[in-house]
Sequence to fold (352 residues):
Amino acid sequence: MKKIITFALCFVIVFSFATVLAGCGNSYDATINVYNWGEYIDLSVISEFEKEHNIKVNYTTYDQNESMYTKIISGSADYDVVIPSDYMISKMISEDLLAELDFSNIPNYSYIDEQYKNLAFDPENKYSVPYTWGTTVILYNDKYVSAEDVAEQSIDLLWNEKYAGYILMFDNPRDSFGLALKKLGYSMNSTDKNHWAAAAAELQKQKPLVSAYVMDLIFDKMISEEAYIAPYYAGDWLTIYEQNENVKCYIPSEGANLFVDSMCVLKSSKNKQAAEKFINFMCETDIAVRNAEAIGYATPHTGAFEALDASVTGNEFVYPSKEKLAETEVFVNLPQDILTLQSNHWIDLKID
Fold:
């Protein structure tokens, strides 16, 4: 969920080149391919893992669950570790794409808070280890967006005609339809086709106001003030705010998506034990602390949470109150007929 794509790509290229140079003359015990969201890890910990375990890591990124899933099922690349969101994990389990984990290789799983275990997408904790969690938020630049327009802290701000041409929208159907459904008072996981038709109509109404449908470019555009309003993820707001303090955020009053991204091993992995070592390494307390500080997202790791500065764990957007969390919804894997309907509506929206 994730960060500046142009920077991320350059950094990955440089990182990959540096890794090759560092590996010259070094015979690794194994190699793993890690596929993750853009700018969703402290890259220095990868080098540390390689040195400590003598396992080479090829690290590449994606910008949404759907593009990750499409690449995996296409068979165009081999990956070992992937870090999908909850509903996509459920989908991948149902399609037999994920391997059952050997937790004897992941003893640091004991640090994962119990409230992030036995969740609906992996009820028996067989396939995933929680990595981060968070909520969607509405970003706005208070230099250009009036206090009156954000007073109700509503999803409606994304449909406010006053800011036509300066509004961004998620470039993925699950998040975009989730917001439209919630705006109408429906569940983000509705299976009522009439609800989806109504949400599609709302997105069509919004389209003339939207400057662009983007993901990682939300960073560039909000920081540079090319756009004034956008939906995104709470952890990434911190990074944006560090570079432009005029960009504020709120959790929508109608409710928001609560996501849990988790580390998984693909069933096709040729180096499953090495992949599990990587997951265990990411759950070491000092590594989890560094990673949480670097990426800004909420951690499910009990030791890391206790070690983080109170100014971080006390942030109401990154670590919302129980009352706010009670108003959130976790995406579930939708029935195939609803997924097909979502896809058709999304194609209609983008083609028009």
User: Anything to note?
Assistant: The chain has two domains: 5-131+262-317, 134-257+326-351. Residues 2-24 have pLDDT under 50 and may be disordered. The beta strands are 30-37, 55-62, 81-82, 129-141, 167-170, 210-214, 229-233, 247-250, 258-265.
